[in-house]
Design brief:
By secondary structure, this protein is an alpha/beta fold. It has 11 helices and 14 strands. The chain has helices at about 45-55, 75, 80-85, 95-105, 115-120, 125-130, 135, 210-220, 240-260, 270, 290-310; strands at about 1-5, 10-15, 25-30, 35-40, 65-70, 90-95, 145-150, 155-160, 160-165, 175-180, 185-190, 225-230, 315-320, 320-325. The longest helix has 25 residues, at about 240-260. About 40% of the residues are buried. Bound molecules: zinc ion.
């Protein structure tokens, strides 16, 4: 369950029951006075048990523990308040922290569903997603005064290590990686995953999430990384993986362009049905609603990218008030 990576740096596997990601990699860095935990898992009993057990195995001092959430997703930030000690600090990027504030304030109004609805996602399926998506149900419940906003370049010393925060918007608007320059170790969060492709969705208030993501890949591609420590699954070749992810999105963009040009006048929901997905379902309509939610989010991110560059165009209100693409 726990694994020593190098001196004073450990991985704790936190299971994510029923989630295709399977497990979150939580990292524990032992310091002299205070230690740091990077990412926590969902706010649910199974995750809490795993993390608690892992930290106990490592003889962590729960009274002197700070927590860094690489981004706002609930499988990373869900339990930050439960594991940071009473006088501890909870680090998160300024941008994701602000977004989390808004999300928690507007939670009951379900504003986070509005873009999907506008782009043709069926209303009944959307209610199902709102009630069942763990990302909404197992998120942290509030923000308290232990939270500390970090920015690109912020340095966090832990024991012999100096972690440098790298801002890599895309996967979330405030996603971060942590860089140990001297050791060549990169905590890649969900910006770079190795045997799964990081989900890129269209975020409310962000013009071009995919463009941001690709810029962030470009920004970090030449770092002399010797060891990657991703948010999920196993590490791999950092530089090769960045090239693969770049090519993946080029292919995806070509696929969306082709779908739009072949059948002009579709909504984003319909376009997503013409993209290839690694899901065994008979047809697009038979996709489980939560998988459809992610698929449409990804499709919209690719649409936004193509719109911004003038490859396709949006026609407002054509399909019962919904935008279509040509
Ligand atoms: Zn994530």
């Amino acid at each position: 369950m726990t694994e020593e990576i190098t001196k004073d740096i450990y991985r704790i596997g936190v299971s994510l029951p029923g989630n295709p990601l399977k497990e979150l990699n939580s990292y524990f860095i032992r310091g002299k006075d205070r230690s740091l935990l990077i990412d926590t898992g969902f706010r649910r009993p199974e995750c809490r048990k795993d993390l608690q057990k892992g930290l106990q195995e490592l003889c962590a001092d729960f009274d002197h523990l700070d927590v860094f959430a690489t981004h706002l997703h609930a499988d990373h930030s869900g339990m930050v308040r439960d594991f940071a000690s009473e006088d501890g600090t909870i680090f998160m990027s300024d941008s994701d922290l602000k977004r989390l504030h808004i999300f928690l304030d507007e939670w009951s109004e379900r504003k986070y569903l509005s873009r999907h609805l506008r782009e043709g996602f069926p209303e009944d399926k959307l209610s199902y997603v709102a009630d069942n998506n763990p990302a909404f149900q197992m998120t942290l419940e509030k923000i308290d005064d232990r939270f500390w906003a970090v920015e690109d370049g912020t340095e966090i010393p832990v024991g012999d290590y100096r972690l440098q925060v790298l801002s890599v918007p895309g996967h979330t608007p405030g996603n971060t990686m942590l860089w140990l320059k001297e050791q060549g170790i990169m905590f890649t969060s969900d910006h770079i995953l190795f045997d799964i492709t990081p989900n890129i969705t269209a975020w409310t208030g962000v013009e071009d999430s995919l463009g941001d993501y690709l810029n962030s890949l470009e920004k970090v591609k030449d770092y002399p990384v010797k060891l990657s420590l991703p948010g999920h699954r196993k590490p791999g070749d950092y530089h090769e993986r960045i090239r693969q992810l770049q090519r993946h999105h080029e292919r995806r963009l070509a696929e969306v362009t082709e779908a739009v040009k072949k059948r002009p006048g579709m909504t984003a929901y319909e376009i997503a049905g013409y993209m290839k997905w690694k899901i065994s379902a008979g047809s697009w309509d038979e996709f489980p609603p939560i998988q459809q939610w992610f698929a449409v989010g990804e499709c919209m991110a690719h649409i936004d990218y193509l719109l911004k560059r003038g490859v396709i165009r949006r026609e407002e209100g054509a399909a019962g008030g919904r935008p279509v693409y040509k």
